[in-house]
Amino acid sequence: MITLHYLKQSCAHRIVWLLEALELDYELKIYDRDPQTALAPAELKAQHPLGKAPVLQDGDLILAEGTAIIQHLLDRYDDENRFTPAHKTDAYSNYVYWLAISASMFSANMFALLTKRGDFGDFAQYVAAQTPLYFNHVEQHLEGKKWVVGEQLTGADFAMSFPLQWGLNYLNKADYPNIVRYIEQIENHPAYLKANEKTKGNLDLSRF
């Protein structure tokens, strides 16, 4: 039995999207953020030492970290390789690359969030440049492409969805038409719409 521990307005939303795309049976446990801190509640922190969402239980296995969960679900349940390029191909190497980029974008976006709340001194210019650096890279890469790796929807798209949705709040959307188109495509994907229904609400990151 698969159980996903889901924190509202978090990167756990992309895991629900993947679970729906894979058409898997799973239990969803939804947690509200702490009203004072906006962080995960104690009940969620009790599920894994890192105390962050998402947390996936698959039988006796317990996993945190979104990209690890994505890869686990694809390795174990995507028997027809619908969302994974063939191994030992350039497409697969690019797939792995964008999985890594998605994780790096979390740090860039966190920098952007923190600059709204404090002074980084001599590092301020470097910190402020990180989200635009990654977004410019993604924007150029998406030119002429449907999905990140090309025409095939892959785990990299599930991984990239949240950091792009989040980071776009710190930028001028008009500067990133390819990313805006890409996010709209994600948010209108049938399995993504099912994820919205399952979680009883859309992902709204405007306050972060």
Automatic annotation (TrEMBL):
Family matches, as Pfam families: GST_C, GST_N
Top-level taxon in the UniProt lineage: Bacteria
Single GO MF annotation: glutathione transferase activity
Protein EC: 2.5.1.18
CDD domains: GST_N_GTT1_like (cd03046)
Annotated ranges, domain GST C-terminal: 63-208
Domain GST N-terminal: 1-81
Keyword Mitochondrion set for record: no
Transmembrane feature ranges: 95-114
Catalytic activity: RX + glutathione = an S-substituted glutathione + a halide anion + H(+)
SUPFAM superfamilies linked to this entry: GST C-terminal domain-like, Thioredoxin-like
GO cellular component: cytoplasm
Gene3D superfamilies from the UniProt entry: 1.20.1050.10, Glutaredoxin
Keywords: Membrane, Transferase, Transmembrane, Transmembrane helix
Protein family: Belongs to the GST superfamily.
Record's protein name: glutathione transferase
Organism for this UniProt entry: Actinobacillus minor NM305
